[in-house]
From TrEMBL:
Residues annotated for substrate binding in this entry: K130, D162, T203, Y204, Y205, E206
Protein's recorded name: tRNA (guanine-N(7)-)-methyltransferase
Reactions accelerated catalytically: guanosine(46) in tRNA + S-adenosyl-L-methionine = N(7)-methylguanosine(46) in tRNA + S-adenosyl-L-homocysteine
Keyword terms: Methyltransferase, S-adenosyl-L-methionine, Transferase, tRNA processing
Gene: trmB
Gene Ontology, cellular component aspect: tRNA methyltransferase complex
SUPFAM superfamilies (UniProt xref): S-adenosyl-L-methionine-dependent methyltransferases
Keyword Electron transport: no
EC number assigned by the record: 2.1.1.33
Gene Ontology molecular-function annotations: tRNA (guanine(46)-N7)-methyltransferase activity
Functional description taken from the UniProt entry: Catalyzes the formation of N(7)-methylguanine at position 46 (m7G46) in tRNA.
């Protein structure tokens, strides 16, 4: 994408009522007014709150919001020019129960209060295979601790990935640390049993992996 196009999207994001772009200092200095207030102030209801971390263009968040009008969805990504797509679609199609937050996932517990979140989706994260990149892997122990902070005690995490490495790494870590694996499937379109929302919606990256005939895997778990 050209830089002109990106700038246009950044400018448009600023005008969208469903896009939130707190600065790092607003978040870390506890000045972000929606922390703990997402339901009441953003969605104006008391419905469950679901996050999609690393939402990219936001297709999953938008499609889930359409499928579950009685839940609220927030797509989180550091790249505003990507989620501009989902935010614009939500505005054009009048989908009130989805919003987008531009931030680093590392700051997630500064954007959401303890126990504010019911469910998390992590869709096609970069597996960060190299050892020195482990700290950026979105299911490492430090990230799981952050997710645990914002999730309700009964909250669940869903991981969908094309990466055998990411799938195996996450399962190993969950079992080793005594977290609760509720369901795991190493090829969701071939092996029956996945929840409907796993196979009925595809993200942008997922569509590309499916064209290459890559198996898509899925894990649903609770962090203890
Ligand atoms: C491989 S893409 C997947 C996008 C989308 N979920 C999909 O399946 O099409 C990973 C996304 O995660 C975002 N991301 C990676 N690390 C992040 C971080 N630490 N904080 C916020 N976003 C991050 C990237 O900007 C990118 O949009």
């Amino acid at each position: 994408m050209g830089s002109k196009n990106k700038l246009k999207r950044f400018r448009e994001n600023e005008t969208f009522s469903n896009v939130f772009q707190p600065t790092r200092s607003e978040l870390v200095d506890s000045k972000f007014k929606y922390r703990g207030q997402w339901r009441k102030e953003v969605f104006k209801n008391v419905n469950p709150l679901v996050l999609e971390l690393g939402c990219g263009k936001g297709e999953y968040s938008v499609a889930l919001a359409q499928k579950y009008p009685n839940k609220n969805f927030v797509g989180v990504d550091i790249k505003g020019a990507r989620f501009w797509r989902g935010a614009k679609t939500a505005i054009e199609e009048h989908i009130p129960n989805v919003a987008f937050l531009r931030t680093q996932i590392e700051l997630i517990d500064h954007a959401f209060a303890e126990g504010e979140v019911d469910e998390i989706w992590i869709t096609f994260p970069d597996p960060q295979i190299k050892y020195k990149r482990t700290k950026h892997r979105m299911t490492n122990a430090v990230f799981l601790e952050r997710y645990k902070k914002v999730l309700k005690p009964e909250g669940v995490v869903n991981l969908k990935t094309d990466s055998e490495f990411m799938h195996g790494y996450t399962l190993g870590l969950l079992h080793g640390a005594g977290h609760e694996v509720l369901y795991a499937n190493h090829n969701v379109y071939k092996q029956e049993g996945s929840p409907e929302e796993v196979t009925s919606i595809q993200t942008y990256y997922e569509s590309q992996y499916l064209e290459q005939n890559k198996p898509i895997t899925y894990i649903r778990f609770k962090i203890k």
